[in-house]
Amino acid sequence: MNHNAPHPPLSPRPLRHLSEVHRRVVTAGRLRTSGVSVAEANEQCRPGGPWQQILPGVFLLHPGPPTSEERLHAVLMYAARESAAGVPAQPGAQEPHRPVYTEAMITGLAALTLHGFSSTPPLLSLDRIDVLVPRMRRLRSTRGARIVRTSPLPAAEQVTGVPVAPVPRALADAVTELTDAGAVRRLLTEAVRGGHCEPAAVVRELNEARLLGRPHVVDAVDSLLAEGRAIAEDRLYRMVQEYGLPDPVWNVDLRLPGGPHLGGLDAYWPEQAVAVELDTRAPRQGRRQEDDAVWSEYARKREHLERLGITVVHVTPRKLRDAMEQQATVIRTALMASCDRDPAAYVVVLPR
Q1: Which domain of life is it from (predicted)?
Q2: pLDDT tier at 14 (50, 70, 90 boundaries)?
Q3: Which fold has domain 244-351?
């Protein structure tokens, strides 16, 4: 008997009911329950062997390089709680187990790529994949996986069968690792221009991550807010056209005749004395007083205009994106109600 003959590859027999990727990527715990000991698994992972250990406690059951899908699932298996990784409820007769991961989701550049960003690198070119876990989990970053901790964990979005952090959170985790101002600006711009999220949500996450003290991030955020305002203005213009509202005068300043400046407005209907103002404020780290001052100015202007008989409708970019028809109805109602109000004071309308 030849004791030096290579061992035949082990095949964990009970794994047929798992999804395809889970037959190729498995945890040490899953191998144990399939009757494969740690020693046997290590034997299969010798140089030139049929298996490989790609992360601590996670095995790839073929010798070639992992696919991007296999890398994503390996990182999630490493980070997720073992009791739940890939063990959903009873499958149907024809339905293989789908991967289920508790308390772990892909974040950072890999998440943005999964969300469909074009300015992020392909998954296979990333040295490490970021994975978001609860703050108290005792895990270490390792070759191929960077552990990012947070509390509370956001609700994951399922993308190609993988739990992925929402875009604003994934952006913040990506920006944490980036020092290139151009790369940061491209990511933030694509987030807004591509319709993935609103600027305020991005700024809120960057603020939470304490990134707004970095000059290259602040510069990118200023560009982002300008970009977001331009998109919101375009949506406002589209709303007026698509829902058949009468044409307003756009981007104007109001003044009392011979008197003080009343403030700028994004749209104004002089005959009905109805104004629309876009609220594009976003919270900024260390600028609470500045934010309060901006809000006080909004409120002061609104009160002054309404005392003069002018109805002011505040619209946020998010409402324009998610509920354009509802916003058009609010403005139409204000225009129709103008005939039931006392005439507004006469104001001078100037281009802004």
Answers
A1: Bacteria
A2: very low
A3: Endonuclease; Chain A (3.40.960)
